[in-house]
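Batch manifest, entry 17 of 40.
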Amino acid sequence: MLEKAQKILQVGSVVDIQNFLPQLIQAYCKLDIEQAKLEKSYEIYRIERYVELKKEKKDKKNSYSDKDIDIISKKNALDKY
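Output type: structure tokens
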């Protein structure tokens, strides 16, 4: 898609650009939707992991500080997504 857009912008006419613009907007919208889904999945996993680590701390299965738990949950989510 990016190669096609670049080619049209370099050698295409105004009509070519006008015809391609709806496709480009549609692709951008799809990408935006997928990004939102990924962000939501990341946030859900991060919260789940945070809760797990807090429970382990409460059960004395780990000795992480609250700040460490926050950092670890974010890192785990980044690694997964």
